[in-house]
């Protein structure tokens, strides 16, 4: 993840998950997977705690605190933030959700749609360049915006989206062929981040990149875990079934521009 720091002022993280993520990064663990392995907990459990899907208990906080060198009370409540010197990656003056009347930090002009350089978020950090903000919103680092698009209002209306909730990502590989081709510019609705209804979604992968897959809930009502089938439209790529807690959905596919 590429972070944007605004000043030396220290802000208290709004959620337990945000405080856990910042503590993990400050402790030198570049990915949630590495941290989970070091602690000895399942990847899905740790990710659910960090992405805010599930709150963690005081016992969990004590374990995380020992590993990350931070107090359990801070992880649980945010008390004594200045003591821990954890700086928020998010400006508290920017609203939690990117709405039609809110501009992201890059000072987008009305109607501009950011095109994301996926490769800029990959590599050493092992993190995606689109991040979870307060209340599980999506925020985009200005450092990975490489260009801008603009679509007619009439088209956006037909797609039932507003420009400020749309991002553009490049497609790589043939896993979604013939629906989506390598090199296509894929438009996603970043306000739609649950796999309902079934359809095509952009997901964060394990290496900090983005993959485009078809998702469908396959678990039965009342099951302990919600299971999702992750499907490639190319039959040469086998589908996988994962718990919803193991998936980070970045947005729902709404269209593409193809060469």
TrEMBL record:
Domain HTH cro/C1-type: 20-75
Tagged with keyword Transcription regulation: yes
CDD domains noted in UniProt: HTH_XRE (cd00093), S24_LexA-like (cd06529)
Molecular function GO labels: DNA binding
InterPro entries (UniProt xref): Cro/C1-type_HTH, Lambda_DNA-bd_dom_sf, LexA-like, LexA/Signal_pep-like_sf, Peptidase_S24_S26A/B/C
Pfam families: HTH_3, Peptidase_S24
Keywords tagged on the record: DNA-binding, Transcription, Transcription regulation
Domain of life of the native organism: Bacteria
Chain segments annotated as coiled-coil in the UniProt record: none
Xref: PANTHER family: FELS-1 PROPHAGE TRANSCRIPTIONAL REGULATOR, PTHR40661
Protein name from the UniProt record: Peptidase S24-like
Organism of provenance: Bartonella apihabitans
Lineage of origin: Bacteria, Pseudomonadati, Pseudomonadota, Alphaproteobacteria, Hyphomicrobiales
């Amino acid at each position: 993840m590429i972070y944007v720091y605004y000043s030396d002022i220290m802000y208290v993280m709004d959620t337990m998950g945000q405080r856990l993520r910042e503590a993990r990064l400050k402790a030198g663990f570049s990915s949630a997977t590495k941290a989970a392995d070091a602690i000895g907990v399942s990847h899905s459990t740790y990710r659910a705690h960090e992405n805010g899907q599930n709150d963690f208990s005081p016992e969990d906080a004590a374990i995380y605190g020992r590993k990350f060198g931070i107090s359990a009370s801070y992880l649980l409540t945010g008390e004594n933030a200045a003591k821990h010197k954890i700086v928020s990656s998010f400006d508290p003056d920017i609203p939690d959700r990117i709405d039609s009347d809110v501009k992201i930090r890059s000072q987008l002009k009305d109607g501009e749609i950011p095109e994301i350089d996926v490769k800029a978020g990959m590599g050493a950090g092992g993190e995606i360049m689109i991040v979870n903000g307060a209340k599980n919103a999506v925020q985009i680092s200005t450092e990975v915006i490489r260009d801008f698009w603009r679509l007619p209002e009439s088209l956006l209306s037909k797609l039932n989206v507003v420009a400020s909730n749309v991002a553009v990502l490049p497609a790589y590989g043939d896993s979604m062929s013939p629906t989506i081709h390598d090199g296509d510019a894929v438009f996603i609705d970043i306000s739609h981040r649950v796999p309902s209804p079934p359809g095509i979604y952009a997901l964060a992968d394990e290496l900090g990149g983005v993959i485009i897959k078809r998702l469908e809930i396959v678990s039965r009502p009342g099951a302990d875990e919600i299971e999702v089938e992750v499907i490639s439209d190319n039959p040469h790529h086998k589908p996988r079934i994962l718990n919803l807690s193991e998936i980070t959905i970045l947005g729902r596919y709404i269209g593409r521009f193809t060469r």
